[in-house]
Design goal:
Blueprint (H helix, E strand, L loop, with lengths): L1 H15 L3 E3 L10 E5 L7 H5 L9 E5 L7 H7 L2 E4 L6 H12 L3 E4 L21 H9 L3 E7 L11 E4 L13 H22 L1
Parallel strand pairs: 1-7, 2-5, 2-6, 3-4, 3-5
Antiparallel strand pairs: 6-7
Helix pairs in contact: 4-5, 5-6
């Protein structure tokens, strides 16, 4: 399903929306990692994952509310797995840790939800530490990213993506997970903001 969607929509992304991506070389060439991005709209996963295709397929956490028939078969086939927002969904965390340990890249949005009505409101709520926690528990890189233009699809805005270098979290490994994840999240959000401002 992932490859089918990618193949069908690639011309639309490159032609109509003029997708431009930079920093792909910053992503690990192999092995699992957590890709953490700002969240502008529900369409963010689309341009975020396409520059990596066909070599890498991103796995996404998708809010459990989306898992209704028949949409659940589409998003499940596209590599997503459910997360119950606003709860300590340990099952979703464990699934993500298993995926990164198995070599898959998992994409997450630490802001927790997309920004209200497409307005630029950075970090309306405290960023979630789940992405950092997964990277720490999985022993994999934590990579920042930023997207722009997904809130302007109706206006055919240009889509832009930037991938940063992995955040330095090696000094946090082995520490209390909750404390380490919070520190790592602070570092991560600084890098995401820098990337977003560069787009």
């Amino acid at each position: 399903m992932y490859s089918v969607i990618a193949a069908l929509t690639w011309p639309l992304l490159r032609g109509v929306y003029r997708l431009r991506a930079r920093g792909v070389e910053n992503l690990p060439a192999e092995g699992g990692f957590v890709l953490a991005c700002n969240h502008v709209s529900s369409f963010d996963p689309w341009p975020l994952g396409m520059p990596l295709w066909p070599k890498r397929h991103l796995r996404f956490m998708a809010k459990s509310e989306l898992y209704w028939w028949p949409l659940k078969y589409v998003i499940g086939g596209a590599g997503a797995f459910p997360v119950r927002r606003g709860q300590r969904d340990t099952e979703a965390i464990e699934t993500a840790v298993s995926l990164v340990r198995a070599g898959y890249p998992v994409a997450m949005f630490p802001e927790g939800t997309r920004r209200s009505k497409g307005l630029v409101k950075r970090f309306e709520a405290r960023p979630r530490s789940g992405a950092a926690r997964i990277a720490l528990e999985g022993g994999v890189p934590l990579v920042p990213a930023a997207v722009a233009g997904t809130d302007g699809l109706r206006r055919f805005d240009r889509l832009r993506v930037a991938y940063g270098r992995p955040v330095d979290i090696d000094d946090l490994r082995g520490q209390d997970v909750a404390t380490a994840a919070q520190t790592a999240t602070e570092r991560l959000m600084e890098k995401i903001l820098e990337l977003e401002e560069s787009l």
